[in-house]
Queue: 2 jobs
Job 1
Amino acid sequence: MTGGRADGLEVRTASVDETRALAAALSAIARPGDLVLLAGDLGAGKTAFVQGFGAGLGVEERITSPTFTLAQQYEGRLRVHHLDVYRLDQLSEVVELGLAELLDDGGVVLIEWGDAILPALPNDYLEVRLTFGEGDDDRSVALATVGPSWAARRRVLTEAVEPFTGARARGAGATAGPGAAAGEADHQGAGGC
Ligand code: ADP
Ligand code: MG
């Protein structure tokens, strides 16, 4: 984690809706069999991300935290499998999730706390790491591609998040200071719901 992820993209969001819009933009490049691993502390926005991702795929049902079930399934343009392995006691329980079957189902699998079960996951996924920022509603969303299928999509991935990379809009190399987002946050392309 030192010095950031050289192979990754980092985006900041200033509201839950913006995180959802970012996720929806990413869902546009999703393919059957994709795995998205969500990392970040409690309340960082992992479930919010899945909500936006699902909305982007046309899921109409309300996506909530799979509290009692480890996995939930939603129908959209692609089927969405939403897993939360926070309560998983042992790695062996992952077997019961039937992950391979879920990935083979023609849908997309998103796993909250997926970094906790890395040894059980195929080495081909998009990692989305959410961290808290300065203000209550500020989040940093770090994206890292692992494995061939996501690596091949680096360019479209960069394009998908471009509307959310404020630094790019403000000038190359300029990292937004804490005050930059506090004023008139003009996030083009983040609209819609
Ligand atoms: P997690 O699944 O990581 O535990 P949730 O998505 O359930 O987190 O909750 C995130 C909480 O943080 C929600 O109450 C949401 O409204 C709030 N929030 C505030 N700002 C943001 C943001 N920029 N991105 C995501 N969530 C945010
Ligand atoms: Mg959650």
Job 2
Amino acid sequence: AGAFLSVRDLHVSFSTEDGVVRAVDGLSFDLERGRTLGIVGESGSGKSVTNLTVLGLHNPMFTTVEGEILLEGQELTTAREAELEKLRGNKVAMIFQDPLTALSPYYTVGRQIAEPYMKHRGASRKAAWERTVEMLGKVGIPNPRERAKDYPHQFSGGMRQRAMIAMALVCDPDLLIADEPTTALDVTVQAQILDLLKDLQREFGTGIIFITHDLGVIADMADDIMVMYAGGAVERGTTEQVLRSPSHPYTWGLLNSMPRLDSDLGTPLAPIPGTPPSLLSPPSGCRFHPRCAFRERVAGDRCVTERPRTAPDRASACHLTAEQKRTVFLEEIRPRL
Ligand code: SF4
Ligand code: MG
């Protein structure tokens, strides 16, 4: 038994000239096929590192990975490069904010979509080209048979994003990791791309990990949400739970700093005071404690001395009691949102 993707007590650290950076520090989560897990957090929270590690894209020379990453029972943390090579672009694919990190300027768009299909599926050139044209059509590129012969620079930004999605999905991956895939696009194109991903997920049953700092996008895309801070998960639950009854002070801060749809233009946002900590020397106890307005409500100095953890199910890693979390949210946070 077990989820399609299961990450257990993952630790990822890098050696740098200044010391060891603990980029991911004890992270566990599951993803089921056909579902979307939204990972949200500020930059430096470890959300991208987690996913590069899932793909085996970390540099083994400078990176230490501990814990388990099980994809359909296959352990990825100890997989050989050749095995990972077989997974990437095949069972597992990734789309990025900037399609030019995935698309080479030197080859036609069509060739770059056809090649992984030939490589992983052993398809003939002709069959791969037909598949490419089909995929470009599915992602909404008009006149795909002709446009497949274009180079990436002949495509608009939104079209390149679509082409990258076609490339990621050409082998019908079971897992798609989307790292801020629409951040650089204007709102209309962004909405189109998100709809496209949802349609493709329905069609192919892909499990998606969607990484973003945008709670609006998460609300639209994710079935489940994991909020990350300083290398760990601080809150986890269904999208409904996390957005409607969040129970971690950091999540409250994120929600409070979100622009409100119904507010007058110019209503100032309330950013969380302070900045995320350096992962070279993270704060003791709860890593959020230097920025947290609620630590006085926890008895003693537990917030400073004891690291709170999430349980595997719905949880927030915070020493406040369940009752405190509920009442503080209802009485002090929600009225401000
Ligand atoms: Fe704030 Fe303490 Fe909860 Fe951390 S454990 S979020 S410092 S109240
Ligand atoms: Mg990132």
